[in-house]
Amino acid sequence: MDEEVELLNRIKASPGNFSEVFKLYYKPIFGYILRRTGNFDETADIAANTFLKAYTHINNFTYKGISIKVWLYRIATNETNQFFRYRKKYNSLFEKIDFENKELFRNYLQDDREELEQELKKHHQFISVITALKTLPNKYQEVISLRHFEGKDNKEIVDILNIKEGTLKSLLSRGIEKLREKCNQI
Questions:
Q1: pLDDT of 9 above 60
Q2: In this structure, are residues 176 and 147 in contact, taking their beta carbons and an 8 Å threshold?
Q3: CB-based contacts of 97: which residues, under 8 Å, 6+ apart?
Q4: What structural domains does the chain harbor?
Q5: pTM above 0.90, yes or no
Q6: What is the pLDDT of residues 79-100, one digit of tens each?
Q7: Structure letter (DSSP) for residue 64
Q8: Which CB contacts under 8 angstroms, 24+ apart, belong to 36-40?
Q9: C-alpha to C-alpha distances, 48 to 24, 41, 131, 155, nearest whole angstrom
Q10: Do the Cβ atoms of 76 and 32 come closer than 8 Å?
Q11: What pLDDT, on a 0 to 100 scale, did the predictor assign at position 127?
């Protein structure tokens, strides 16, 4: 807590210190968004928007029990949901993924892409689970992604989504059951 307050004070004194936030949280936020979208280019855009919003609004942020990390995840969640609302009519996000195109990975975000590509390849069922997850309502996608892909505990998820713990437990339970049903149909 004290470290976060000190960091906020440094950023407010000199906005260039925002780079500390970027260095600390870019990879986890990028990974979270990637696991929600499944597309590197779209993830890069959403992550850029997330950090731009954080940068432009950091002076309005005050530490009130919500950490900078949780605040960033909230922004990333909102930006991702906004992206999906915008793209809803296109509904073919995962049909366009080309994991075999290694040249694409070499040209853009080289290190991050290779690291995340290896992680994705280790999980043979990842694509089918994500495809099934995308058919669920957003409220289930959010809680399942935060819990199972990001490893967040109930307190963090409740803070990020600004919901009650009972609501979270209900959403997780129903969402997992719906996801199981979808995966069993594949």
A1: yes
A2: no
A3: 38, 39, 127
A4: 1-96 (1.10.1740.10), 125-186 (1.10.10.10)
A5: no
A6: 999 998 887 655 544 444 455 5
A7: S
A8: 36/80, 36/141, 36/145, 36/149, 37/80, 37/83, 37/93, 38/93, 38/94, 38/97, 38/127, 38/130, 39/93, 39/96, 39/97, 40/104, 40/105, 40/108, 40/109, 40/113, 40/116
A9: 15, 11, 24, 26
A10: yes
A11: 74
Q: Residue type at 42?
A: E
DSSP 109-124: SHHHHHHHHHHHHH-T
Q: Tokens at residue 99, please? A: 């994991």
Spatial neighbors of 58 by CB under 8 A, at least 6 apart, are 8, 11, 12, 15, 18, 21
Tokens of 70: 């949780």
> Any idea how long the chain is?
186
Separation of alpha carbons 134 and 128, rounded Å:
10
Alpha-carbon Rg for the chain in angstroms: 17
- Alpha-helical (H) ranges within 38-109 are 40-57, 68-87, 102-107
Site of tokens 């260095």: 23
pLDDT digits (tens, 9 = 90+) for 140-179: 999 999 998 889 999 999 999 999 999 999 999 999 999 9
Encoded tokens for 129: 């689970």
